[in-house]
Amino acid sequence: MKRKANAIWQGDLKTGKGHISTDSGVLAKTQYSFTTRFENGTGTNPEELIAAAHAGCFSMALSAQLGEQGMVADSIDTTATVTLEKLDTGFSITEVHLNLVAKIPNADQAKFNTAVENAKTGCPISKLFNTKITLESKLESTAKV
After folding, report:
1. How many CB atoms lie within 10 A of CB 22?
2. pLDDT value of residue 72
3. How far apart are CA 19 and CA 106, in angstroms?
4. Considering just the CA atoms, what is the radius of gyration of the chain in Å?
């Protein structure tokens, strides 16, 4: 399976602009620029897209792991925060922090913890990173009516 996206950039780094598109059409000439990446301009940036990809991948991986533990979530809400820092060697993603809130009927905390850890290390986007991945998780277990 292969997925494709395209980026076009015009101009220099600080005043130039670009746009990103995906084959699916979900992103279609979505604007990005220096200000959307390093300031608060309108548009997207690579780190935001990486965060979205990681949150989505982790959530799906967790769903699979929960299934192996005999649990099905009512909801898995994951926020990924990507940290981009300027180091001596240049800009680098230094950390990804995942914040998870899962609502699971009749959940077992120990099985949940195992599923979360397996999803954190096993999701393909996690495997892509060569950086620190931290995670906070909250389980909201509800009784099935």
Report:
1. 14
2. 96
3. 45
4. 18
Q: What is the dihedral of CA 116, 120, 124, 125, to 10 degrees?
A: 130
Same domain, 9 and 59: no
Token pair of 45 as six digits: 């940036």
Counting every residue, how long is the chain? 145
In this structure, the answer to whether residues 26 and 53 fall within a common structural domain is no
Q: Residue 64 is part of a domain; what is its CATH number?
A: 3.30.300.20
- Please state, in angstroms and rounded to a whole number, the distance separating the CA atoms of residues 78 and 58: 8
Is the pLDDT confidence value at 143 over 80? Answer: no
Q: Could you tell me the residue range of the domain that residue 138 belongs to? A: 46-142
Could you read off the pLDDT of 7-20 as tens digits, one per residue? 999 999 999 999 99
Is the pLDDT at 145 greater than 60, yes or no? no
Tell me the residue type at 140. Answer: E
| pLDDT tens-digit map of 31-64 | 999 999 988 888 999 999 999 999 999 999 999 9
Residue 95 has phi, psi (to 5 degrees) of -165, 150
